[in-house]
Amino acid sequence: MSAAEKATGQGPLILVVEDDADQALLLADMLQAEGYRSATCADARGLMQLLAEELPALVLLDLGLPDEDGFALAAKIRALHGVPIIILTGRGSEVDRVVGLEIGADDYLVKPFSLRELAARIRAVLRRSTAAPAPPLGEPSLRDGFRFEGWSLDSARRKLSDPSGRPVELTVGEFDLLAALLAAHGRILSRAQLLDLTRRSHDAVYERTIDVLILRLRRKIEPDPSQPRLIVTERAIGYLFAGAVEIINGGEVSRS
């Protein structure tokens, strides 16, 4: 198989990065049957070639590539393109899962997996990562979402803006977790509750997922992540959002 095979099919483009030719073909066939366009490559070089031609809606990334560490490649994709990533790998330890989420992957699926489960996870990530179009001129810039400490979280467009108005990139998991904390501002939420609210698996491994996402959010919104004052830990219980929050609903503002 060539280093990169261009997209075929219709619908949103999904890139498959897999050095096992049979597995890559199986995934490409599944994607096309689900209504997506698919393109495949066997290594990091092929992936960069495809990314230069067209940004995909999502990347399915195998960690065991011949020319670059999969974790390093995932971090590069997030930094350069912000494309959602689902990691597909035989490495199922908790450490590997946490590292994958730490570098910004949106989901992590251990081989062997069912194609039906993968298809469901793809739909979930795409559904939560697809932004709505900008509102027409003359409408308020934020009609549904939250404001806190000068920050704005736009629920419709799934965008976070800092106090100067600049966009701050969030992964799907980070956005869902921040929205859940803001909606429950002032109330402690356990990890189990946060897992429910962010629609993630109740696999025991994913209890640690919340801690990883909290650390990533603190680095992005806290003035001093080592001494957080917005997202506060309640030891042995869970987390709460301690700052003042404005809830925006249809352009109407209510304050906590």
Automatic annotation (TrEMBL):
Record-annotated DNA-binding residue ranges: 143-243
Entry-linked SUPFAM superfamilies: C-terminal effector domain of the bipartite response regulators, CheY-like
Keyword Translocase: no
Gene3D superfamilies to which the protein is assigned, alphabetical: 3.40.50.2300, 6.10.250.690, Winged helix-like DNA-binding domain superfamily/Winged helix DNA-binding domain (1.10.10.10)
Family matches, as InterPro entries: CheY-like_superfamily (IPR011006), OmpR/PhoB-type_DNA-bd (IPR001867), Sig_transdc_resp-reg_C-effctor (IPR016032), Sig_transdc_resp-reg_receiver (IPR001789), WalR-like (IPR039420), WH-like_DNA-bd_sf (IPR036388)
Domain of life: Bacteria
Residue intervals of the OmpR/PhoB-type domain: 143-243
Alphabetically ordered keywords of this record: DNA-binding, Phosphoprotein, Transcription, Transcription regulation, Two-component regulatory system
Modified residues (4-aspartylphosphate): D62
Boundaries of every Response regulatory domain copy: 13-126
UniProt KW Transcription regulation keyword: yes
Entry protein name: Response regulator transcription factor
